[in-house]
Amino acid sequence: MMQNDKVIVCEKLTKRFGDFVATNEITFDVHKGEIFGFLGANGAGKTTAMRMLCGLSAPSSGKATIAGYDVYTQTEQIKKNIGYMSQKFSLYENLTVLENIEFFGGIYGLSDERIQSKTDELLHRLGLKSEANKLVASLPLGWKQKLSFSVAVLHEPKIVFLDEPTGGVDPVTRRQFWDMIYEAADSGITVFVTTHYMDEAEYCNRISIMVDGRMEVLDTPTNLKNGFHARSMDEVFYQLARGAKRGD
Amino acid sequence: MKQFLAFVRKEFYHVLRDRRTLLILFGMPIAQILIFGFALTNEVKDSEILVVDYAKDNASQELLTKIGSSRYFNIRQAALSHKEILGTFQKGKIKAVVVFPANFNEDLLHHNKAQIQLITDASDVNTASMITNYLSSIIMDYQNEVNQNLQIPYRITPEVRMLYNPQLKGAHGFVPGVMALVLLLVSVMMTAISIVREKETGTMEILLVSPFKPVLVIFAKAFPYLALSLINVTAILLLSVFVLDLPVKGSVVLLFAESTLFIITCLALGIFISIKTSSQQIAMLISLMGMLLPTMIFSGFLFPIENMPLPLQVISNIVPSKWFYIIVKSIMIKGLGLASLWKETLILFGMTVFLLLVSLKSFKIRLQ
Questions:
Q1: What is the pLDDT of residues A202-229, one digit of tens each?
Q2: CB atoms < 10 A from the CB of B269, how many?
Q3: Cα of B247 to nearest chain A Cα, Å
Q4: SS3 B96
Q5: How far apart are CA B181 and CA B187, in angstroms?
Q6: Are residues B25 and B51 in the same domain?
Q7: Are B291 and B188 in contact (CB under 8 A)?
Q8: Residues in chain A whose beta carbon is closer than 8 A to a beta carbon of chain B?
Q9: Could you say which of B92, B118, B148 is where a domain stops?
Q10: Does residue B195 sit in the same domain as residue B294?
Q11: The A35-40 sheet, strands edge to edge
Q12: Which residue, B148, B182, B206, sits at the end of a domain?
């Protein structure tokens, strides 16, 4: 791959809180349009790593660039070029669908015309035209999650970070949700996703698994299964996570 | 700027859509002003008055008839010692006691002047001052009547004693007091809750990941409450002028400027609380216990600070509402200008700057 094809470049990225090393010298690259699975047990250091990559928290040492911008000095630029969706539902419940889209479009600095055209396109794609003026609180969870994802990529970011986006969602909706992720990846958006569902891990192009702050493995699902002589990602994960010393 | 406006518009949606918030925002000031206001305009009609007449002479009888014939007072007579008089107040029915000294008429005839003692229960400040005013004017009336036929005028001096609260502190103090309370509630509690709510729901994270500057998040969240608080100040002033007939003697512009300063103090406090807490309930509890209670106790609104033990008097100085209360009272009731209030204003300003700096600093630390 060519150098400029890499949208996330991490080199020995480390975050310490006092004596505790939350993220320990992780090194990896993510390519444009890739779906990158970021796995690990609770407390393995995923969230900390992700916060550094989003420009929310400064690393203790190591290097990283996101979409070509440095995580130490160019957090402002990074934020403009990424989208983010967390495991907690992240739209405003007492705002309507339309108001939510307008608000997030607004704080990302999109022009009114752009927000307008994006809104039409988004509502049409999600089939939410008739619900546009309903409060988000009244939508079923599956729709909320899909809407949430659409809002996260509203400003056409280079990378979208998804932190356990399908928690608590039924299998059918999860499947639909992953269709949206594929669509986004096809359009050139890089997807960086954390999940606890191992079947979802299989959908990723490449997977990394964190154990105790270190990145233990990084490969395609097929290679990982072969390497660990495992039939499923579940087994791979168990073999790795069993050795973990840190828990919740 | 456009981003900021989008944010502020969202905040207004939140406020206007939440009935409970609206009720607290606009119902409370109106209710408080009216409740306190009608306590103020307490009717003095048919007040029970106890007369202790040691004189029992012509003059005292004439004056008594005059007092008794007014529609304000119901007179009961009793011969009591001074100590027993105090006892009758504690039962609470008697609003005032009129004491004629033993040689009331004699004094008038020979010295041309005499004294009457008026003792009132000033724990109810408004009633007490109204009763003494009425009684004094009846006595003046009587004096003028008698003096028409005399060459050397009589002078009857009512000697007034306000029991329990001799300085009549807090007479009109409730409007400034309510103003401090309402602004505190709206600005501290509402701001704190609205920021903590975003933390609870997880939307704060989304905002922090967006290119929208974190400091602007805070300002954009506080801004609508500044606007709403100013509407509240206006509502309270309108109510007090048109419903309670309590005019603003000083400059209205200055009053609004000082209110804005106090609102910013409160917003800074609210922001600080919201940074230090992570649930709406805790934010609310801290705002209520930590802010409302000191305001009630230490602003001088309900209890005169001068009567407190020294340590409490010292503590009262760190309560911002105390200074705001003094400022509003001085502008509204005494009609003072900035020239005489610069010290209080400066203290409040200092507190505001300090609180803003502390909360912005701890906000930055949170982000790390």
A1: 999 999 999 888 998 999 999 999 998 9
A2: 27
A3: 41
A4: strand
A5: 10
A6: no
A7: yes
A8: 54-58, 76, 79-80, 82, 84-95, 99, 102-109, 161
A9: B148
A10: yes
A11: A82-85, A159-163, A190-194, A35-40, A206-211, A214-219
A12: B148
Number of domains in chain B: 2
CA distance B84 to A212: 82
3-state SS assignment for residue B117: strand
Strands A69-70 and A214-219: unpaired
pLDDT of residue B133: 81
Alpha carbon of residue A119 to chain centroid: 22
Give the strand pairing for B113-121 and B96-100.
antiparallel
B209 and B106 within one domain: no
Contacts with B6 from chain A: Cβ below 8 Å: 102-103, 105-107
Ranges A31-45, B60-74, B324-338: which has the least confidence = B60-74
Q: Quick one: B221 and B91 in the same domain?
A: no
Q: Using a CB-CB distance cutoff of 8 angstroms, which residues of chain A are in contact with residue B206?
A: 84-86, 90, 104
Residue contact B3–A54, C-beta within 8 A: no
Q: Which residues of B touch A (CB under 8 A)?
A: 2-3, 5-7, 9-10, 13-14, 17-18, 201-203, 205-212, 367-368
Tell if the CB–CB gap between A107 and B17 is shorter than 8 Å: no
| Chain B CB contacts of A86 below 8 Å | 202, 205-206
**Residue in this structure with the two tokens 């339309």, named with its chain if needed:** A98
In this structure, is residue B368 part of a structural domain? no
Which residue type is seen at A11? Answer: E
Question: Between A112-126 and A97-107, two packed helices, what is the crossing angle to 10 degrees?
Answer: 140
Residue B170 dihedral angles phi and psi, to the nearest 5°: 90, 15
Write the DSSP symbol of residue B60.
H
Q: Which secondary-structure segment (H or E) carries A40?
A: strand A35-40
Bridge partners of B52, per DSSP, are: B99
B88: containing domain? 47-148
Three-point CA angle B123, B128, B134, nearest 5°: 175
Same domain, B123 and B176: no
Say if B228 falls within a structural domain: yes
User: Which residues of chain B make contact with A103, given a CB cutoff of 8 A?
Assistant: 6-7, 9-10
**Is B160 within a domain?**
no
Does residue B155 lie within any of the structural domains? no
Does the pLDDT value for residue B40 go beyond 60? Answer: no
Closest Cβ–Cβ partner in A57, A99, A161 for B13: A99
- Nearest Cα residue in chain A from B365: A57
Q: What is the ipTM of this complex?
A: 0.85
B28 and B111 co-located in one domain: no
- Residues B23 and B101 reside in one and the same domain: no
If you average pLDDT over residues B61-87, what whole number do you get? Answer: 77
Q: pLDDT, tens digit, for every residue of A86-140?
A: 877 778 988 999 999 999 999 998 999 999 999 999 999 888 889 899 999 999 8
Q: Mind listing the pLDDT tens digit for each residue in A144-183? A: 888 999 999 999 999 999 988 888 788 888 898 999 999 9
Q: Between chains, do B205 and A95 touch, taking CB under 8 Å as contact?
A: no
Contacts of B367 in chain A (CB under 8 A): 56-57
B203:A95 CB<8 A: no
Asked if B219 and B315 sit in the same domain, the reply is yes
Question: CATH number, domain at B66?
Answer: 3.40.1710.10
As a whole-number percent, the residues of chain B with pLDDT over 90 amount to 14
